[in-house]
Amino acid sequence: MHTVAILALDQTVPFDMAIPVEVFGRVRLPDGRRPYRLRVCGTRPQVETETFTINAPWGLDGLAGADTIIVPGRAEHAGPPPAEALRALRDAAARGTRIASICGGAFTLAATGLLDGLAATTHWIAADELARQYPAVEVRPEVLYVDNGLLLTSAGASAGLDLCLHLVRRDLGSAVAADAARLAVTPLEREGGQAQYIVHERPPLPTGSLLEPTLTWIQDHLGEELTLQDLADRCGMSTRTFSRRFREQTGTTPLQWLLRARVRHAQYLLENTDHPVERIAVQAGFGSATAFRERFKRIAGTTPQAYRTTFRSAS
Q1: CATH fourth-level superfamily of 200-315
Q2: Model-wide pTM > 0.90
Q3: How far apart are CA 301 and CA 297, in angstroms?
Q4: H-run or E-run covering 47
Q5: Which of 40, 47, 56 minimizes the C-alpha distance to 3?
Q6: Does the structural domain 2-183 have CATH classification 3.30.2420.10?
Q7: 149/200 Cα distance (integer angstroms)
């Protein structure tokens, strides 16, 4: 069982605390077992927030046996993190423990020095201040979260939800993570700029619309060379009318939708088969391996081989 420790310090943001509890506490394996054990750790047994008190039955020694540590944000007026908490985080990092921050938790993580020389993110409102206080950190305010392997940071609280689901996927694969996302009533991935190992959901099918049969047909013919004219002909429309109605019903263009569908299919093949990249390029409709690598990296933020290395064993 994987132990997730949540570090609760004075003036911790309650919502940031709730996110990992919601995600990791509700994950279930296909056989119904719980894969995660939760600990709330703090410098003392009770931690004060702006609205209520959090019980922290585990002291900082509870971080020692954790596989993952989540560092929530704290109120702006909270002051510097306790020195003993920073030492505990450094010790955990030295042991190879995975540490992730939510929103303003990046300030606590940056105060340890562990983020020096690495990319990181936080809420966009606080990004400039994070860069000012910690100039050795490469602050990236435009992304939802940054994955540096054992050190991860997320933007606002909702991006913390994205990050926690990302960790579930790293640990247990896409199927378990998708179930966790459904329980949290959120998509497994939101578009918004996360550049590394973003998980692309199957593009939405507008149920009951005139486009639904065509989009279903596209899913079954991703390996074929499809043009805008081909898609419009399937609906019996001109390309102009088809493109306009498509955008109205899906929020994107036909060719952007098709690209997302092909990338998602390629992700599935990379995770669940041993097919070489050249074969997957054809199966997903990219034609050549060169075109596949270029477009996959542009959308997913990494190469097909690196993606497979990260997610194949977990799946």
Answers
A1: Homeodomain-like (1.10.10.60)
A2: no
A3: 5
A4: strand 46-48
A5: 40
A6: no
A7: 20
